[in-house]
């Protein structure tokens, strides 16, 4: 890719993996995200860990707010706190990306039908080339497979490129 690309890891936080309905294909999700993080690091692409916080559950700096324990940010990785479902809304994310010359974002994370969806739509609205990694976002809903397939299709129609992790390059 000719344009500068950044990897966005949205809300892969411990509390989301502690609910009564397990995260759909959680082990594959984390493995695919780790593979993408490693590839981004090798290519020198920015990696941005985005963490949701609110007073009703994901309290900033609480144990549940922390990233999934298998995700280990490296020095130089970026971290953005958010309180809205769109990671660009009322955060410095757009400014952080533009200051690094980023024109393309690769989106992964949780939850497919809320924060992943809205962050993709936010990126598209701001003019970023947007790739949704079809097998690197998930939800804890009972109908998770259908929800993931639905948002892969809808976000593709909205202008995001949708590809599996093995096809992503930085």
3D structure, described in words:
By secondary structure, the chain is α/β, with parallel strands linked by helices. It has one domain: Isochorismatase-like (Rossmann fold), CATH 3.40.50.850. It has helices at 26-43, 93-99, 112-125, 144-157; strands at 4-10, 47-52, 78-82, 102-110, 129-138, 161-163. It has a 6-stranded parallel β-sheet, with helices on both faces. The chain is globular and about 40 Å long. The N and C termini lie close together (7 Å).
CATH architectural category: 3-Layer(aba) Sandwich
Shape category: globular
Reading off the top of the CATH hierarchy, the class is best stated as Alpha Beta
Low-confidence stretches: none
Structure summary:
α3 runs parallel beside α4. The protein has 170 residues and is α/β, with parallel strands linked by helices. α1 links the parallel β1 and β2.
Can you lay out the helices and strands and say which pair or pack?
Blueprint: E1 4-10, H1 26-43, E2 47-52, E3 78-82, H2 93-99, E4 102-110, H3 112-125, E5 129-138, H4 144-157, E6 161-163
Parallel strand pairs: 1-2, 1-4, 2-3, 4-5, 5-6
Key descriptive features of the protein:
single chain, 170 residues, alpha/beta, Rossmann fold, six-stranded parallel sheet, globular
